[in-house]
Design goal:
It is built from nine helices and eleven strands. The longest helix is centred in the middle third of the chain and has 15 residues, at 180-194. The chain has helices spanning 3-16, 63-72, 87-99, 110-116, 180-194, 270-282, 309-319, 345-349, 359-364, and strands at 24-26, 140-142, 145-149, 167-172, 200-203, 212-217, 235-237, 244-248, 252-254, 267-269, 338-339. Among the domains are: 44-117, Muramoyl-pentapeptide Carboxypeptidase, domain 1 (Orthogonal Bundle); 167-319, Collagenase (Catalytic Domain) (3-Layer(aba) Sandwich). Bound molecules: zinc ion (2 copies).
Length: 366
Amino acid sequence: MNSHLFISVIFASILANSVSALPRFFPNSSSIPRSLIPTNPDGKWDAFKNLTGCHAGENVDGLANLKNYLHYFGYIDKNNFTDEFDDNLKSAIKTYQLNYNLNTTGELDGQTLEQIVRPRCGVADIVNGTSSMNSGKKTTSSGIHIHAVNHYSFFPGTPRWPAGKTDLTYAFLPANNLPDSVKAVFSRAFQKWSAVIPLTFTETSSYVVADIRIGFHSGDHNDGEPFDGVLGTLAHAFSPPTGILHLDGDENWVVDGDVAASAVVSAVDLESVAVHELGHVLGLGHSSEREAIMYPTISTGTRKVDLAGDDVDGIQVLYGSNPNYNGSATSTTTTTTQERDTSGGGSRFGGQLWLLLAVGMGLLTL
Ligand SMILES: [Zn+2]
Ligand SMILES: [Zn+2]
């Protein structure tokens, strides 16, 4: 057993014993009890909307919290955050706006705050000041035509599962006692990816030695990235070959796919989040392409389970195409024509990649 695997197994064993409560699953959004529906439609980040219209130089309650948020997702260095709208905050907001295709005003306008409060993946968009979402990419212009690069991204060093390992095993945290309906959601999510790349995924009951380990956890669960209750961050996953995928056990997870049928704001479609997190498990980072599975946010009551062309292009760079793949994405994207960024190709693989939250550090602290 190599040292990485050894540490991974210890890590898995500790996590297997750290579950405080069973996750909540609902067959559909209308079966969620009223008592579990938050009063704030956007959950814990709703208060950020009160910052609408703040300008540089102002001192407003809540800006320090916003700086903490932007720090968590990689947009601003850790500092003694105050409630002052300083230059660092303005710069961080501009980068955020660039990544999410918003007007890069550096102002806290309504559109920007609407985006900021959406439930999202807990994986950071930027680490060490670099990003391969929009803010880390070049856009070239030719005459009146603007050609955007592809929006998919990878982890630093472009890690992937080893070439000889084409059948990956996966297992569910035994303490979660997941019903078959939930396991079936993950089976479908794996199929989205195996349809386009030459990898297969097989469930095993042996959690500790499985390549991919899936667990629902609440709050602090010993990997340095505590979950935050209903909405906010929904899930996170670690880069290959770590194989760790965690979901927030406090969400109101809807398993049967009719999440849009109700106005219940806290209903989160499990399959949509599962497909996204498996993208991380396989080596994809976040994408600025709104239609892509790897876009970092998902609104409640939304179902998005089909890979976009951007996702397919990205994952096939890592693994090649499944010979049976018919060459068209399972959903079409409607954005402007995208071209390979030949001029920026070197830097994509040369280190201008954002980093998933530091799994190495998490393992070292055990
Ligand atoms: Zn993500
Ligand atoms: Zn975790």
